[in-house]
């Protein structure tokens, strides 16, 4: 496998070029022709392949900010299903919850303020952006 364990929150840092069906195997082994025929020779270890992938990695990976709206939307779907079984009014309430969750999710800013995040577990400080640094310095 060409991903680390445990996997990161995002996909590959840079998209790897795939040349073979089993790319990870073919990056570790090469076919060498000898007097007895073709043999496979290990040229790299798994750690070396992972190190090569990480060497060309982008230093900044943008991920969307955490959001509660997908949970709100997901809560509305079973409410609609219960409404189909028991009462139409419950379906309408579920549909309103789904609409609320959909609009909330779509209209939410893609990048939240640093104050919206929990403290960093390593040093206990909030992640600061330029605007919070200016406010803290009095400018």
Explain the overall architecture.
The two termini are 50 Å apart. The chain has a two-stranded antiparallel ribbon with strand order 1-2. It is mainly alpha-helical and 139 residues long. The longest helix has 20 residues, at 88-107. The chain has helices spanning 23-28, 46-55, 69-85, 88-107, 130-137; strands spanning 29-34, 37-42. The chain has two domains: 1-62, no CATH class; 69-107. A hairpin with a 2-residue loop joins strand 1 and strand 2 (37-42). The chain contains five helices and two strands.
Which secondary structure elements does this structure contain, and how are they paired or packed?
Elements: H1 23-28, E1 29-34, E2 37-42, H2 46-55, H3 69-85, H4 88-107, H5 130-137
Antiparallel strand pairs: 1-2
Helix pairs in contact: 3-4
Pick out the low-confidence regions.
124-139
Nearest-angstrom radius of gyration? 25 Å
Categorize the overall geometry: elongated
Rounded average pLDDT: 78
Q: Can you write the helix and strand succession as a string? A: HEEHHHH
Binned, the helix content reads: 40-55%
Count of helical segments? 5
Number of domains: 2
* Content of β-strand: 5-15%
Derived structural class: mainly alpha
Major sheet attributes? 2 strands, antiparallel
Annotation, overall tally of beta strands? 2
Strand order across the largest sheet: 1-2
Q: What distance separates the N and C termini?
A: 50 Å
